Structures are given as C-alpha cells and as structure tokens.
Predict the 3D structure of the following.
Amino acid sequence: MAITCFIRYQIDPFQREAFRDYSDNWGRIIPRCGGDLVGYFLPHEGTNDIAWGLIAFESLAAYEAYRARLKADREGRANFAFAQERRLVLREERSFLETVPSTCRRQPEEPSR
C-alpha cells in the first residue's frame, strides 16, 4: 500500500526565506535517502505561518528504511541542525495517508468526441 507522509509545519513567518532554504535542501536529500518528494509548499496568501511537505513511499516499511537513511545522512543531519539553530519550525505534525492510486498525479484525458 502506497502512503504519503503529510507534514504540517508551523513556521516563524519572519524566517520564511530561511524555511525556503531548508526546503530546498530537502529537495536534494529526500530523494537520495529513498523518499519520493511530492514537494514543499510555503504560505502565500492568508495564514503566514503554515507550510507543508509531502513525501510519498511505497509502504510504511519503506518510510521506516528512509528514516534510518535520513538519520545517517550527513547533509540531512546538517539540515535538521540548521532548522533547530534558526528556530524555523515552531511545530511539526505528521499524518500518514493512504494513496488512492487512480487519483495520484493523474494526467489529463483526451476529450471524448
């Protein structure tokens, strides 16, 4: 069963650009460690302190293996330390969602005639 780890971040809105750097770093690290990075999303309009990260995995076991690789990754550890030192993330919540395969990254269909 495919799953997506849905991470909701409460960030310091005055450090939005530093959170962008943190997210950019994950763009290199997560795929290397085995995650299928769907993306990171910064606040644009409305609430200015909520950001999101979505990472897909083939299974919960694949997620667990990814977490072990992430903890062993030098650049991953440095990115966690960067966020802690800057106090970018005020709160982090993780939810694991089952992927509905027929809806995930679906391409447009040709119009019927």
